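cron nightly-structures :: item 1 of 1
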Amino acid sequence: MTEATPPTAPSLANPSALLRHLYDVAVQRALPLHNTAAQLPPPPKGRTLVLGAGKAGGAMAQAVEALWPADAPLSGLVVTRYHHIPPRPEGLPQRIEVVEASHPVPDAAGLEAAQRILKLSEGLTADDLVLCLISGGGSSLLTLPCEGLTLEDKQRINRQLLESGAHIGEMNTVRKHLSAIKGGRLAAACAPARVVTLTISDVPGDDVSVIASGPTVADASTCAEALDILCRYAIEVPPAVRAQLESGALETPKPGDGSLAGIATHLIATPQQSLDAAAEAARALGLNVVVLSDEIEGESREVGKVHAALARSTALGRSSFAKPCVILSGGETTVTVRPRAEGQKKGRGGRAGEFCLGLAQALGGQTGVWALAADTDGIDGVEDNAGALVTPDTLARAAALGLKITDHLSRNDAYGYFEPLGDLVITGPTHTNVNDFRAVLVV
């Protein structure tokens, strides 16, 4: 429920601060308290049960507590990432339990939370309302392996998916079919109660069946597709689980399934909304704005090179973009973890940092170009930074410290490259998540 005061807008005299301002505006637009009221249903005749999972789960729960009538029954359980519960506003009673678990690799705490959430869905009636609060990160936080799969199996499969370069749709197709709660199964378990899902999108295209692996949404993907993805990325599953995938025994509820009849789903915050807010803030500063897309996918370093090409052509007066301008984009890129040479130090970093490495290398020290890439949840991969900054002298400053960008790219070590430069973007948990935010400033 974090309520932030709009930051004072900087000027072109401080490009890095200007870019951080645009990021902050984008994040603020996606905070749950700003977006929940319009989509809340009225209290039902029976009880209201709140269930949820995601990095924004704690803030979403507080928003509901603040907005729900004080005299209407309200209870439930939501799971969020460790250290992602926002401070409780003074005077706000807690009616929804919020617990923490691991992301992006699931742990026993997430398993216990998922078991408890599924248990709470039992015994509901048609007079009851289940309010589901879903945001990015819910796939690992709401972990309940299918029959024949252990938590250790799920952890291994999750790590391998994260390192494979698979895009989010592929990863969540697998996750849904190896789960006892995702892919619409949670909503089916809540029948005959009315289910209303409020969700914050962190996926390209805002496909609600992909966000957190769609625990309350019908799933059009199939066991055969999940098996094909596992084979494509050479990820093993136990023989008994493979047999269930081959037979279709692990199939998810499909569109038109009667157990999901009457379920309502509302997007309360999206990547495009945050990009639009940042664009408006940039125009207010006198900048021309180009919003490329909120659905950009691909290998992070390669996406960085494409952005660099656009920025260079603009800086040199060879594009249709007029300076001064800012180029904005969102989406969810991927990082394929490179094999390390024997004795080579393991790299640290996530999608945003890897994008900045590719961008900086391709810019080659181009004058007049600054950039910021950061995840809107405040966490780039598993590190303590949201992302990184690139400046015209990034390569020169790094070279002076003996840092070779090719070395850091070879081992996916964006953190180790930008930390000595003082160019990590560190925000702490933001209590929302509309995925990647990228802004390239050309003056």
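cron nightly-structures :: done
The longest strand covers residues 75-81.
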